[in-house]
Amino acid sequence: MEHHDHMGHGGMDMPSDGAKCSMNMLFTWDTTNLCIVFPQWRVSSTITLLISLLGVILLTAGYEFVREMSRRYETSSAEYVNKLPRKNVDDAEKKQKLVKAGFYAVQVFYSFFIMLLFMTYNGWVMLSVAVGAFVGYLAFGDSSSTKSVACH
Length: 152
Known about the structure:
By secondary structure, the protein is mostly helical.
């Protein structure tokens, strides 16, 4: 019996056309059988590579959009709470905290997803993440760039 026959790693060969996802643990520019996050998101040609890289740019720029919406909500809700009569402040602050927690959860999930994109170890995908952050900041970054885009 071969070692690979009984190890139960068959799930890595998901695409039904016989091609296997290439999973690199070292930096590479090779896009042969590159799967991005999901086995269904597989690069099989130059066109699918370009579409995928554009998608990565848009996804990463979207992260900056979510961050900016979170900051805007925080600012506007703080102004709203400051205008309320004192007796209504507690309920408004509870609602505000729930919404802020929702934004925070979306940002954490989103940042981990971007981390998974980067962990393809593919140079083209990594560059697309950086370009997306650049584009997103230009489009949506109305505040300081000092806050990290770290995973969490």
